[in-house]
Amino acid sequence: MSLLTGLLALILVIVLAYILYKTVKSVTGLIINAVVGVVLLWLINLLDLMQLVGRPDIPINILTVLICAIGGVFGIIVTVVLHLLGIPLGL
Predict the structure, then answer these.
(1) What angle do CA 32, 36, 39 make, to 5 degrees?
(2) How does DSSP classify residue 1?
(3) Spatial CB neighbours of 63, under 8 Å, sequence gap ≥ 6
(4) What Å distances lie between residue 8 and 4, 13, 42, 67, CA to CA?
(5) Taking all residues of the chain, what is their mean pLDDT, rounded to a whole number?
(6) Per-residue pLDDT reduced to its tens digit, 29-39
(7) Local confidence band at 10 (pLDDT 50, 70, 90 cut-offs)
(8) Using alpha carbons only, how large is the chain's radius of gyration in Å?
(9) Which parts pass through the membrane (predicted)?
(10) What angle do CA 47, 80, 75 make, to 5 degrees?
(11) What distance separates the 2 farthest-apart alpha carbons in the chain?
(12) Alpha carbon of 81 to those of 2, 35, 55, 57, 76: distances in Å?
């Protein structure tokens, strides 16, 4: 194996390690964001926070959980605003 081939292999390994690091780092952030969104949805219903504005609890179904999991904190804000406006999020 020549020096050039070894150098190219080393560069390729470094680039792949960097891409893997960035992917794992972003996936970890997405997982944390999803967990925070779902926990906030659960806490809003557990603490009856919607009762303070005269609305029933937000129904926990597959659609609301997906919105909160994908959107995180922004997803829970969207879900609460839609619920306050009376737009149902049921299937």
Answers:
(1) 135
(2) -
(3) 89, 90, 91
(4) 6, 9, 51, 44
(5) 87
(6) 889 999 999 99
(7) confident
(8) 22
(9) 27-47, 59-85
(10) 110
(11) 75
(12) 63, 20, 11, 13, 9
Task: Tell the residue number behind the tokens 């129904």, with chain if given.
Answer: 59
The gap from C-alpha 56 to its chain's centroid, in whole angstroms, comes to 25
User: Where along the chain do its domains lie?
Assistant: 34-91
Structure token digits, residue 22: 């960035």
Residue pLDDT, tens place only, 67-87 = 999 888 889 999 999 999 988
Where would I find the H helices in the chain?
A: 3-46, 62-71, 73-84
